[in-house]
Design a protein that fits this description.
Layout: H1 4-14, H2 19-33, H3 37-50, H4 63-80, H5 88-102, H6 104-107
Helix pairs in contact: 1-2, 2-5, 4-5
Length: 113
Amino acid sequence: MVTSRDVQEIVEKLSSDKVKAREEGIKLLSTWLEGGSSHNFCKFIGLNTAKLRPDEIPHSETWPFLISILIKSASSEISSSKRRNPKLIYAKTLRIVVQRAEDAKCSGQLEVV
């Protein structure tokens, strides 16, 4: 079962200025996106996203917010890795998040039959 606290922990870590905290956040998000917990996590985020009004700013438990914070985190990883290559987990996780957000089963969109 996914809770707001779970998502807030991910967001908090991905938003950190510290490299180690961002790494923990990306690993935690990756864990939620894999295996059996993936469906529940995606459904939780998708339902919150579906409740957004067009004029509303996305909050932390929505796909748009999660994607934007992940992009910022990946950007920080790229800029902080001057002497080494950025870690691939950021790109892989971003790709998975975008795929899940676009998937009608996970996005919170109503499926048209």
